[in-house]
Design brief:
Shape: globular
Structural class: alpha+beta
Strand order of the largest sheet: 1-9-8-7-4-5
Low-confidence stretches: none
Helix content: 25-40%
Order of helices and strands: HEHEEEHEEHEEEH
Radius of gyration: 15 Å
Mean pLDDT: 91
Number of helices: 5
Distance between the termini: 32 Å
Strand content: 15-25%
Largest sheet: 6 strands, mixed
């Protein structure tokens, strides 16, 4: 899928309150979509695609997280906290790029809430509290989800999708 197509799909989900979970690259694309279509910043770029761009919203992480398991600190007032029911979790990553820390406050203050951070305070989980389920994680919950022990966020996403499907068919 092209980046343009991914951004259009994410925008559709966000604007129409479809359940959405974006992990790793999905996190990165959700940030770019939000910056472009909600904040009106058309020149935002991803360092992987255009490293010399002047407005990099997605940049290389200070250290690669490929194959790493790291702590994430969760905001207690977030929707995400309700799924974990704890403020500190460990998650597995497979990522080299994340939200440029210079834009983290801008994204958060404009509605795409930073609700999970690493030890340095950098964004690892974002959510749109106004949507029923719109979550972006830099880690990949699917990496630790098993059929006998599914990840809490995968269960939450599937539950939201099921409820959405039922409500669509009732209207």
């Amino acid at each position: 899928m092209s980046m343009k197509g991914a951004l259009k799909a994410i925008q559709f989900a966000r604007e129409n309150d479809y359940p959405f979970i974006g992990t790793c690259g999905g996190f990165q694309h959700a940030v770019i979509e939000y910056a472009q279509n909600k904040l009106g910043l058309n020149d935002v770029q991803h360092a992987e695609y255009d490293p010399s761009a002047s407005n990099l919203f997605i940049t290389a992480l200070s250290c690669s997280l490929i194959g790493e398991t790291r702590k994430i600190f969760i905001n207690k007032s977030s929707m995400i906290y309700k799924f974990y029911n704890k403020i500190e979790v460990e998650e597995r990553y497979n990522c080299n790029f994340g939200l440029n820390p210079n834009y983290q406050k801008l994204i958060d203050e404009n509605g795409f809430k930073v609700v999970g951070t690493d030890g340095k305070g950098e964004a690892r989980i974002l959510e749109l509290p106004r949507n029923n389920f719109f979550v972006a994680t830099l880690f990949q919950p699917q990496l630790s989800s098993l059929s006998t022990n599914p990840h809490k966020l995968i269960i939450a996403y599937l539950t939201s999708a099921k409820e959405f499907h039922i409500s669509e068919h009732l209207s």
